[in-house]
Write a structure and sequence with these properties.
Number of strands: 20
CATH superfamily: Gamma-glutamyltranspeptidase, small (S) subunit
Low-confidence stretches: 3-33
Mean pLDDT: 92
Structural class: alpha+beta
CATH topology: Glutamine Phosphoribosylpyrophosphate, subunit 1, domain 1
Strand content: 15-25%
Distance between the termini: 34 Å
CATH architecture: 4-Layer Sandwich
Length: about 600
């Protein structure tokens, strides 16, 4: 186990004090600019979208913690500083390379539908609710998995306690952090709904009902007290007792003001639903690509299977020798056909027999590749038939899901590694930016709207709403091994475009000779089996954009796609950590011990 790695004999008490004191400098420097987005060095690394979180992870590594400890510590801080994208009111998926076992495993901390939910829960008067009406309600709130995930991974794979891991987050919540432009913009997106919820308005809006200005300080003493309770008593402080009761009351009786301008429908979550929540450790998805082993997250996430299928389709193309526009064309088509299968076949495996072996079979990829031409296919393309290639060999009823792009670009991703070679790729979320829009009164955190990730407008589709079920996700934390040892890890936020982002990062890095920083900067494209292909504005002025348009691609500009982070292990103990330099305001990458300036990336 990773716990055996803690050989420095630092006591738990002294480590907690050291973390708290050391992080004081980082918390006091909350006004410092983000970044740097790239760092090379030794001893471990971390990359997140936010400097305070990355610094907390590095402080943990410097005091003997491992990659799991660092990831949870960073996640705690992001729960405070990135509350519209993550937090204890949500869930996520974690992919881990355990160096002591030379093994990749995954942790499923996905939210779960309350037992009383049914396929018709989001329907009224014979029709499904709109996305906004479904989202801004108690109906959309799944039983959160984040706190249980942190406790589980620290117990099984970490070296520090939950109390130690949460110390930096508690400090930031108490002392406050400075509002930047991204935080302001995300608040503005939620302004009308936050105004309906007094607890949300008090925390995120000024007295005049406008978002807090850039440069002001946001303090969250309620969240600090909540995290302190979890730190002291563990996950039972979240899933039982007063906090659980307040969460249930928020879901069942949305805490809106009498002057609310929207309808907020009640949910059905109970104390039994909270007490029944369990994190699941699952086998990762795995494909071989260019002699490398690519591991990802399996169902109920569609990330690993969809990226894996797309890579299998691309495997037979000589992408390294192709012109850039031809590479992108093949990548878009591989994504298109893989998304058709994702939409038809991926759901919670406890409720639907996902043909995962078939979806990831090389023989099945060949049948999908045979459909690809040198022009854009007309979407939606139909799903294929993976069952002849599936180990179970038994077809199940399926319903093709119409292609959609309604998922909002929320979520956040953490990449960490340590001196022993352990690697963590962790994506967690509350789904849409701002989740369901409700802050739990007195506890300072937003609740998720993850149940809108179900195909809630169908009562028969495999990803339909059902009690006790986990909605399909697009989260795609990924670890790539070379000769059994970690080569790189990547991940991103962005709804369904998480999958296309990770796919492009891998193609850019593994096939196109880009460095990891270049791959993360590269303008992105996203084809999700829709009539249009979303692209970032910078791509539209490239020769490749003109070439793709001549091939029938309809390119639609979107402000940005994802805000990725990643780490590459360069060999001989040296690592390269990379975050976004611009997207989502820019991220932060750090190493434990910086390398000499001679190495350039």
């Amino acid at each position: 186990m990773l716990r055996s790695r803690l050989a420095h004999l630092v006591t738990a008490a002294s480590l907690l004090v050291a973390l708290t004191l050391a992080f004081g400098a980082a918390a006091g420097a909350a006004t410092a600019p983000v970044g740097p987005p790239t760092a090379t060095g030794r001893g471990g690394a971390a990359a997140t979208v936010e400097r305070l979180a990355t610094q907390a992870a590095i402080d943990t590594l410097r005091r003997g913690g491992n990659a799991v400890d660092a990831a949870v510590t960073a996640a705690g801080v992001l729960s405070v500083t990135e509350p519209f994208s993550s937090g204890i009111g949500g869930g996520g998926f974690l992919v881990l390379y355990d160096a002591s076992q030379r093994k990749v495993t995954t942790i499923d901390g996905r939210e779960v539908a309350p037992a009383a939910m049914s396929p018709a829960s989001f329907w009224e008067d014979g029709a499904p609710l709109s996305f906004s009406d479904a989202r801004h309600s108690g109906l959309s709130v799944g039983v959160p998995g984040t706190v249980a995930t942190w406790a589980r991974v620290l117990r099984e794979y970490g070296t520090i306690s939950l109390r130690e891991a949460l110390a930096p987050a508690i400090r930031v919540a108490r002392k406050g952090f400075v509002v930047d432009q991204t935080f302001f913009d995300q608040t503005a997106l939620n302004r009308d709904w936050f105004a309906d919820v007094p607890a949300a308005a008090a925390l995120y809006l000024d007295a005049d009902g406008t978002p807090r200005d850039v440069g002001t300080v946001v303090r969250n003493p309620d969240l600090a007290a909540t995290l302190a309770g979890i730190a002291r008593f563990g996950p039972r402080a979240f899933y039982r007792g007063p906090l659980a009761a307040a969460l249930i009351d928020t879901v069942r009786h949305p805490p809106v003001s009498p002057a609310a301008t929207h309808v907020w429908r009640p949910g059905v979550m109970t104390g039994k639903d909270l007490r029944a929540y369990a994190v699941r450790e699952r086998a990762p998805t795995h494909v071989s690509y260019r002699g490398l082993d690519v591991y990802g997250m399996g169902p109920p996430s569609s990330g690993g299977s969809t990226v894996g299928e797309a890579l299998n389709i691309l495997e037979s193309y000589a992408l390294p020798g192709m012109a850039r526009d031809a590479v992108l064309q093949r990548m878009l088509e591989a994504s298109r056909y893989s998304f058709a299968d994702r939409n038809a076949y991926v759901a919670d495996p406890s409720f639907f027999p996902v043909p995962l072996t078939g979806l990831l079979a090389e023989g099945y990829a060949a049948t999908r590749r045979a459909l690809i031409t040198e022009r854009a296919a007309t979407s939606p393309v139909a799903p294929g038939d993976p069952y002849p290639f599936d180990a179970a060999g038994q077809a199940a009823a399926k319903e093709t899901e119409p292609a959609k792009q309604t998922e909002l670009a929320s979520t956040t991703h953490i990449s960490t590694c340590d001196r022993w070679g352990n690697v963590v790729s962790y994506t967690f979320t509350i789904e849409a930016i701002g989740g369901a829009g409700m802050v739990v009164p007195g506890y300072g955190f937003l609740v998720n709207n993850e149940l809108t990730d179900f195909t809630f407008d169908s009562t028969t589709q495999p990803n339909r709403v059902e009690g006790g079920k986990r909605p399909r996700s697009s989260i795609c934390p990924t670890i790539v091994l070379r000769d059994g040892a970690p080569l790189l890890t990547v991940g991103a936020p962005g709804g369904a475009s998480i999958i296309s982002t990770v796919l492009q990062l891998l193609v850019d890095r593994l096939d196109q000779g880009m460095t990891l920083p270049q791959a993360i900067v590269d303008p992105r494209l996203s084809q999700l089996n829709t009539a249009t292909t979303q692209v970032e504005p910078a791509f539209l002025s490239t020769p490749e954009a003109a070439a793709l348009q001549k091939l029938g691609y309809v390119l639609a500009a979107t402000p940005e796609i994802g805000a990725a982070t990643g780490i590459e292990l360069l060999g001989h103990g040296e690592v390269l950590a990379v975050a976004e330099p611009v997207r989502r305001g820019g991220g932060s990458a750090m190493v434990v011990a910086a390398a000499a300036a001679r190495r350039a990336h």
